[in-house]
Amino acid sequence: MADACGQILLGSGLTVLSHPLMYIKVLIQVGHEPLPPTLGRNLFGRQVHQLPGLFAYAKHIIQIDGKAGLFNGLVPRLCAGSMGTIVHSKVLQKCQEQGTPQVLGGQQKAAEGSLQHVVNETTKEMIARSCATVVTHPFHVITLRCMVQFIGRETKYSGVFDSIVTVYREEGILGFFAGLIPRLLGDVLSLWICNLLAHLINTYAIDDSMSHTGEIKNCSQAVTGFFASMLTYPFVLVSNLMAVNNCGLAGGLPPYASVYPTWVDCWRHLSKESNMSRGNSLFFRKLPAGKMYAIDQKRFF
User: Fold this and answer.
1) Which letter does DSSP use for residue 100 in this model?
2) Is residue 119 classed as helix, strand or coil in its secondary structure?
3) What is the pLDDT of residues 222-267, one digit of tens each?
4) Backbone phi, psi, residue 21, to 5°
5) Assigned domain for 62 exists
6) How far apart are CA 285 and CA 278, in angstroms?
7) How far from chain centre, in Å, is Cα 1?
8) Which CATH number fits the domain that encloses residue 62?
9) Main-chain dihedrals φ then ψ at residue 50, nearest 5 degrees
C-alpha cells in the first residue's frame, strides 16, 4: 500500500509538471493553430517558415487565460493517474500471484532473460495496463474535452462531477469510452514492440562481459520505448480526436474536424490528408505540405 501511495504522489507531481505540454499537444492534435507561421531556422540553420513551438503557444494561452489556463483539465487527469496506478498495481500483483496462464504455452517459470520470460512478463504488464486504461478512460475523455474547450471558449465541461453528468446525459455510457479502442491498441503494440526489441538488443548486441552492462540495458529499454512510442503515435492521435469528436465542442466539429462514424474513418481521413503525425513535435514545427493558413479560423485547410 505504501508503494502505491508513493507511486501516486510521484506520478501526480510529474503529471502537474507535464500538464502544460500535454495541453498544448492536444490543441495542436485537434488542429488549432492560433498563431500564424513565422520565419525561423531549422536544425541545420536554414531559414524556413515554421509554426510556433511550445513556448510561443504557451505564451499565447497565458495571454488569454493567465498561467492557470495552462492547467485546464488537470483535476480529471490527476484522478485518472491515481486510479490507474492503483488498478495497475492490484492487477499486476494478482497476475504475479496466479502466474502466467497455460494458454500462453511454455513453462510457468522461464529463465530470467529468456524470450519466454519476456513474453510472460509482458503479458502480465499488458493485462495490468489494459485494465487501468479501461477503468480510467472516462477521466481521460473528460480531460481532453476540458482542454479542447479553449478553442471555442466554451465552459461545458467545468468540473469532474458536472462533466460526468454532461457526458452521460448527452451520450450515455458509451460516451465515456470514446476513443478507447485505438488507445488500447496503441498501448499494447507499444509495450510489445518496446520489450521485444529491448530483448533482442540485450541478447544479441550487448555482451554480458562488458562493463556497465546494467546501465546499457536500461538505456536500450529507454531507446526502444521512445522508438515504440513514435511508431504507435497515430493510435494516440486518433484516440484523442475520437474522444472529442462530435461532442458539442467547436474543437470536435467542422471546420476543425469532420464527424467520424468510427475511429477507422478518422484514421483513413488523417492518412489521406498526411496528418498522421500532427502534434508529434512541439519544436521546429514545419508547415503542412499543400495547406493554406486561415487566419479567421486559426487552422490549416
Assistant:
1) -
2) helix
3) 889 999 999 999 999 999 999 999 999 999 998 778 899 999 999 9
4) -65, -45
5) yes
6) 10
7) 27
8) 1.50.40.10
9) -130, 160
